[in-house]
Amino acid sequence: MDSLYRLTCGPINNARDTTIDETIIILQQPYKEIRDDGVRYLSDILRNNITLITLDVGTNKIGPKGAQYLADALFQNTTLTILNISSNKIEADGAQNIAVALRSNTTLTKLNISNNIIGDIGTQHLADALRNNNTLAILDLWNCRIRDDGAQYLADALRNNTTLKVLDLTLNYITSNGAIHFDAVLRSNKTLIKLDMSNNQISWLRKHILWKDSRILF
Question: Would you kindly state where each structural domain of the chain is located, as residue ranges?
Fold first, then answer.
């Protein structure tokens, strides 16, 4: 497509004069060893950019502070719809920063925060944001060390959320006790079309019960 541009330049950790061409709508920066300082410069640009719709900074070295920079930018940016921050060092504090922005952001439709050690605490922050967010449709949380408490937080959030369509919870530590929370919720939630809980610790008996809902994958 003529209108589609991708930028995959080198590391930007110290590039204070980094700019993004106004025609670029997809910015891909995976495997660039970007740290918090690099994200700071990207976020400064993102605040006022009106063309970028996808930002991929997955598989870097972004920590909670970098997540804070991105969250600050999300408060002002009005065009970004896809954000990939998977495989970084976000942790629970970073997830909280992103969650605060999600409460007021009205453009982001897909968030990939997978393969970050956010645990149940970080998941709780994201779940709380889902209660108020009206645009996010896809949330990827595979391999985030989520356990039963985190599963319950997400299930409770889905009681109120009416926009999330895909929730990926593969490769976590959810047992049958956590999975059961989604059973009652999905009876009333008709928006979610895919809940992936593959490669968790759910018993075959619980899987047999939940398998009646074709939206759930194990």
Answer: 6-217
The residue count for the chain: 218
pLDDT, averaged across the chain: 89
The tens digit of pLDDT for each residue in 71-99 reads 999 999 999 999 999 999 999 999 999 99
- Indicate the residue type of 175: T
Q: Dihedral angle at the C-alpha atoms of 74, 75, 81, 85, nearest 10 degrees?
A: 20
Determine the Cα–Cα distance for residues 20 and 26; give it in Å rounded to an integer: 10
Structure tokens at 157: 């959030």
The backbone region for 152, taken as left when phi is positive above 0, alpha when psi lies in -120 to 50, beta otherwise, is alpha
CATH 3.40.50.2300 describes domain 6-217: no
Q: Return d(Cα 184, Cα 160) in angstroms, integer.
A: 13
CA atoms within 13 A on the CB side of 74: 26
Whole-angstrom distance, CA of residue 39 vs CA of residue 216? 35
Contact (Cβ atoms closer than 8 angstroms) between residue 212 and residue 185: no
With beta carbons less than 8 A apart as the criterion, state whether 193 and 184 touch: no
DSSP secondary structure, 25-80, as one string? -EEE-TTS---HHHHHHHHHHHHH-SS--EEE--SS---HHHHHHHHHHHHH-SS-
Q: Cβ atoms within 10 A of the Cβ of 107, count?
A: 14
Pairing of strands 82-84, 110-112: parallel
Nearest to 95 by CA among 138, 28, 23, 146: 146
